Design the sequence.
């Protein structure tokens, strides 16, 4: 049913002889019936909506800070309007092109390499029959998520050190030259992606494990009877059962595309690798040091949000079109 | 239907409970009308106000004062010193802390919402921001009326640093005195092994580092950060601001900065300083030194006990020697120090108890109280030998956090008292004393130490410092050629550096 | 033919186990390292002598941490916030997800959109702070869980799951005259244990790990939750050198030793780690078995 609006569908409208589109007279009656029939569904929705309005929408006017020269001591009303000044400052800043490129590249690398990983691992883990082992591994593998980036960074610097770090020792013993990973422009992004993967994959797996757990075992039974081997079962049952959650995760991930891991990068980068690792978040952080330029950071955040939102809407539209399912 | 209604009511009830729980709980002291404390300050006059009399603001019961402090790990309200102060002054203070991260943001939030604090303990940046925003009460009158001890104990130069256009906006709390904080230390046992002497200038340093690299195969010098004071001083770069040939320069524009960077680059390329210098931190540098991977590093006196302890554990025969401060080509050595104010104690314009706050802070500077505040009672917490103060352990440990409660110090005596702290640990003390002996007569004061708030500096300094730090590191590590130094400098100037320098020079000339 | 499959299958199983054992080692290493550090002497820790086995074994660090009044206090605060927050949030989120999972709901798209919108757009810190202040929630414990009652992300996951449950469930219940509330609480929720366990975990971890909210909204040291306390403990060590011109030497002298920091991390993290194994029993296959006949 092609939606014309949120509440109106095609069945609710008709064109009269004059070519004017009118809402069916019975539309409002039908609307009332539907709402009354499921009145308790709407009641269920009320607490959430109230919460949303109070905590999310009443402060929403803060977005306007991006269009003003906000002074926290003067407040919203006293701070002057400046239109798109802060956005221009962002786009015209000296290194914006490089920084934007880095942001996109690192984010895309992370999506391409790190999005499928937890899915694959959840499937593989699911194939294990030994419950004790399975649970043990699940618990261990998600541990790094709980470590702060400060600790994880220290760890990786240690492992990748040119001064006795284990990775370089292996490289040298295999006849290679030691690599200074953290200061090497060719390797640094790899370090970023790898450390992020190591830290988060175990945690990201959990959602997929839950999805797999809710697949009807009878499907597997039936498939086994039909003679399907392990991989065919995975391909025809497990994966399809996971598609809804995979799709949801992917679309939401797109919404974050301009967040390439600011917290991680801030801790791990150094000026030697700025050309490849400086992203919007880190760049704006340095630009704002020592000043409390709320307007500028709000403007950058707004830019990120707009891009993310467009991608989510676009992603959802494409998903609906080709896969017939989406977030809404 | 009934069941649905029940569930509905449950939800509403739950929301109501959490909402009520929300507003009722916690420590939300909006006012300071409550009185507490064992003081005998009940004065019945407070309730009977005679409108014809001029009411003394200090009359009446002593209110609870609310103080906003910078971050620290302990709970100040439970500290020994807090109780001590309450007993001695009759004022109870409630202490709240800013967080470690985003302290300025939070401070601004609190101040823009006019949270009712009586006393604020601020860093320089915070002070500048709030002063410029007009959030602070001018203190001149209050000090004249209620702050005689403060006036006596704090120098004119310090007051100036906290003033704008003649109006004092904070009580300046000076540091602990002029002391050298660090120097280079070297493995003396290795020096002896190689038959070398302690270097006294750059050339000798270079030779020693080279010997370490070639003969001992260790990292000659390990540390982090682009401007290593101990080496930069040999180029006449002592502070963030220096006077060269009568002209005030910011470090970035120092005539010999490029030379310094070239020298460091040379050291880096030849492997005489740690290849991982750009990614080192204090922790990793100390790790490399104490595990025997490096020969020389920079040691701050407050780290001496842990570093010496670790080194001894791993290498019982190791010996440390402190390098003298390196001389430049003219045989001159220098140690840069900032004699400025560490903390600015301010009173917000909307504070409910300004007079009491000033009175309280004044009481803290009374001769005996101040001494006891800083180092406790003689015979209990400290003892006096030859006019010097020594701690009595373990009683002295009660006072470890005493300085947190200072709101201004008596500059005439504070640094003498404070030395008791350093004497707590013999290793600490020895190293500290050695440093001061080496640094004697060599101090070069940062000319901008006591400059009042200057708008362009507070706006640009931090960001430009990071920019310079980043760029210097690239020069040193060879990631960027020093041929680009001029274009870096041009960018530095354009991003606010020029403005900073002009304003600084203007103030400096007017002194 | 069966012979070949069996071998390939065995190979797969073997490599699978090997792979996960390796992965397990890789991921558990830093924890072992931290644990070892927390039980070692400070001298050994700062000189990098500790890897996975404690050096100069001592338990003083744990004694110190567990006896620290502020730590115990922070721990208590975190437990309260996490338990209340998770329970409340789980309830609110499922309640909201259910109606949005019904295609027949009029205005569904609109409602979902207004939720998703808030995932990306937010008013920012300043107006939110003002709101919290007006609600008198500053410096109270509820501020640490009330504003997070409904995470849109979590809500979408639950909604997604509900959408995957067979329609027959609802139809047969409706035929028996059950109200929507009844269906949600007595039928859907019991069948959603895997996803509820997951979301409970997500919320619990989020509440337990949060430090940002407490950093901004909590002023009194005795209301600080654990992660904030911990973060500040660690940060104080690293940031002593970072001030521009003036170092507070008294603070520098009081920096917390690294071994104690490691012990603090252990004590702060282990409790929340135990939640997942506890919830794992809900990740059981076949919750839907027999729920729909035919």
Sequence:
């Amino acid at each position: 049913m092609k939606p014309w609006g949120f509440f109106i569908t095609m069945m609710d409208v008709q064109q009269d002889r004059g070519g004017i589109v009118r809402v069916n007279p019975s539309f409002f009656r039908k609307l009332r019936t539907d709402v009354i029939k499921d009145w308790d569904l709407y009641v269920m929705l009320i607490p959430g909506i109230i919460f949303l309005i109070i905590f999310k929408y009443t402060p929403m006017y803060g977005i306007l800070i991006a269009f003003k020269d906000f002074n926290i001591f003067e407040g919203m009303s006293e701070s002057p309007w400046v239109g798109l000044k802060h956005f221009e400052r962002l786009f015209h800043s000296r290194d914006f092109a490089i920084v934007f490129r880095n942001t996109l590249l690192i984010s895309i690398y992370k999506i391409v390499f790190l999005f499928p990983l937890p899915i694959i691992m959840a499937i593989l883990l699911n194939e294990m029959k030994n419950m004790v082992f399975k649970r043990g591994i699940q618990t261990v593998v998600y541990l790094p998520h709980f470590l702060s980036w400060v600790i994880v960074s220290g760890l990786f610097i240690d492992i990748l050190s040119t001064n006795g770090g284990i990775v370089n020792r292996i490289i040298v013993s295999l006849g290679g030259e030691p690599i200074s990973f953290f200061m090497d422009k060719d390797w640094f992004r790899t370090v970023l992606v790898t450390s992020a993967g190591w830290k988060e994959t175990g945690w990201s797996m959990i959602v997929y494990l839950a999805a797999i757990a809710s697949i009807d075992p009878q499907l597997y039974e039936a498939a086994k009877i039909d003679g399907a081997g392990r991989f065919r079962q995975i391909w025809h049952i497990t994966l399809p059962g996971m598609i809804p959650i995979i799709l949801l995760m992917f679309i939401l991930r797109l919404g974050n595309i301009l967040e390439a891991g600011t917290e991680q990068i801030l801790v791990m980068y150094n000026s030697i690798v700025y050309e490849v690792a400086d992203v919007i978040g880190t760049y704006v952080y340095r630009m704002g040091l020592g000043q409390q330029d709320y307007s500028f950071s709000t403007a950058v955040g707004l830019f990120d949000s707009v891009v993310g939102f467009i991608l989510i809407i676009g992603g959802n539209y494409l998903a609906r079109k080709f896969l017939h399912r989406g977030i809404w | 239907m009934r069941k649905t209604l029940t569930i509905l009511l449950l939800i509403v009830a739950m929301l109501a409970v959490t909402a009520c729980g929300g507003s009722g709980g916690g420590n939300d002291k909006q006012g300071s009308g409550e009185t507490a404390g064992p003081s005998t300050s009940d004065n019945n006059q407070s309730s009977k106000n005679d409108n014809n009399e001029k009411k003394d603001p200090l009359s009446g019961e002593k209110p609870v004062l609310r103080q906003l402090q910078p971050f620290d790990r302990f709970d100040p309200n439970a500290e020994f010193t807090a109780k001590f102060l309450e007993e001695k002054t009759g004022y109870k203070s409630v202490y709240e802390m800013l967080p470690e991260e985003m302290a300025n943001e939070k401070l601004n939030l609190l101040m823009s919402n006019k949270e009712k604090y009586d006393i604020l303990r601020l860093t320089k940046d915070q002070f500048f921001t709030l002063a410029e925003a007009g959030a602070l009460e001018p203190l001149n009158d209050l000090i004249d009326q209620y702050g005689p001890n403060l006036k006596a104990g704090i120098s004119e130069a310090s007051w100036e640093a906290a003033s704008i256009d003649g109006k004092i906006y904070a009580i300046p709390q000076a540091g602990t005195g002029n002391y050298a904080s660090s120097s280079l230390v070297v493995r003396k046992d290795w020096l002896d092994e190689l038959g070398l002497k302690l270097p006294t200038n750059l050339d000798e340093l270079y030779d020693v580092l080279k010997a370490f690299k070639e003969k001992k195969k260790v990292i000659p010098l390990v540390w982090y950060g682009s401007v290593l004071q101990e080496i930069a001083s040999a180029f006449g770069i002592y502070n963030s601001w220096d006077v060269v040939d009568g002209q005030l320069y910011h470090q970035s524009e120092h005539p010999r900065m490029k030379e310094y960077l070239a020298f460091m680059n040379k050291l880096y390329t030849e492997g005489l300083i740690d290849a991982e210098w750009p990614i080192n931190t204090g922790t990793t540098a100390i790790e490399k030194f104490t595990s025997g991977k490096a020969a020389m590093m920079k040691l701050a006196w407050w780290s001496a006990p842990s570093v010496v302890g670790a080194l001894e554990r791993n290498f019982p025969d190791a010996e440390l020697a402190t390098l003298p401060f390196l001389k430049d080509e003219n045989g001159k050595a220098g140690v840069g120090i900032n004699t400025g104010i560490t903390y600015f104690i301010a009173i917000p314009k909307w504070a409910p108890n300004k007079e009491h706050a000033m009175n309280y802070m004044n009481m803290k500077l009374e001769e005996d109280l101040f001494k006891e505040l800083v180092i406790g009672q003689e015979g209990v917490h400290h003892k006096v030998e030859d006019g010097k103060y020594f701690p009595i352990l373990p009683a002295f440990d009660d006072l470890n956090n005493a300085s947190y409660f200072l709101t201004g110090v008596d500059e005439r005596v504070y640094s003498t008292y404070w030395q008791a702290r350093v004497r707590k640990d013999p290793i600490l003390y020895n190293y500290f004393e050695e440093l001061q002996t080496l640094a004697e007569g060599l101090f070069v004061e940062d000319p901008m130490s006591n400059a009042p708030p200057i708008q362009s500096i507070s706006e640009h300094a931090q960001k430009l410092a990071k920019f310079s730090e980043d760029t210097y590191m690239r020069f040193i590590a060879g990631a960027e050629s020093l041929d680009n130094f001029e274009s870096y400098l041009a960018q530095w100037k354009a991003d606010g550096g020029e403005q900073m320098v002009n304003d600084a020079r203007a103030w400096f000339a007017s002194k | 033919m069966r012979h070949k499959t069996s071998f390939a299958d065995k190979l797969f199983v073997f490599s699978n186990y090997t792979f996960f054992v390796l992965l397990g080692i890789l991921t558990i290493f830093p924890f072992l390292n931290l644990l070892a550090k927390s039980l070692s002497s400070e001298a050994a820790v700062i000189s990098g002598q500790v890897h996975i086995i404690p050096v100069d074994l001592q338990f003083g660090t744990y004694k110190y941490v567990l006896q620290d009044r502020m730590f115990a206090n922070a721990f208590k605060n975190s437990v309260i916030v996490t338990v209340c927050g998770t329970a409340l949030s789980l309830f609110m989120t499922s309640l909201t997800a259910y109606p949005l999972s019904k295609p027949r709901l009029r205005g569904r798209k609109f409602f979902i959109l207004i939720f998703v919108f808030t995932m990306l757009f937010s008013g920012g810190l300043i107006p939110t702070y003002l709101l919290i202040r007006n609600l008198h929630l500053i410096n109270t414990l509820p501020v640490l869980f009330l504003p997070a009652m409904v995470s849109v992300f979590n809500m979408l996951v639950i909604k997604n799951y509900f959408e995957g449950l067979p329609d027959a469930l609802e139809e047969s219940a409706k035929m028996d005259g059950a109200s929507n509330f009844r269906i949600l609480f007595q039928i859907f929720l019991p069948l959603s244990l895997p996803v509820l366990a997951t979301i409970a975990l997500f919320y619990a971890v989020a509440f337990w790990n949060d430090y940002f909210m407490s950093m901004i909204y909590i002023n009194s040291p005795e209301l600080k939750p654990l992660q904030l306390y911990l973060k500040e403990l660690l940060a104080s060590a690293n940031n002593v050198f970072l001030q521009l011109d003036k170092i507070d030497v008294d603070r520098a002298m009081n920096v917390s030793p690294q071994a104690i920091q490691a012990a603090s991390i252990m004590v702060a993290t282990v409790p929340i780690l135990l939640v997942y194994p506890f919830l794992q029993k809900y990740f059981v296959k076949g919750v839907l078995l027999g729920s729909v006949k035919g």
Summary: Chain A touches chain B through 29 residues (CB under 8 Å).
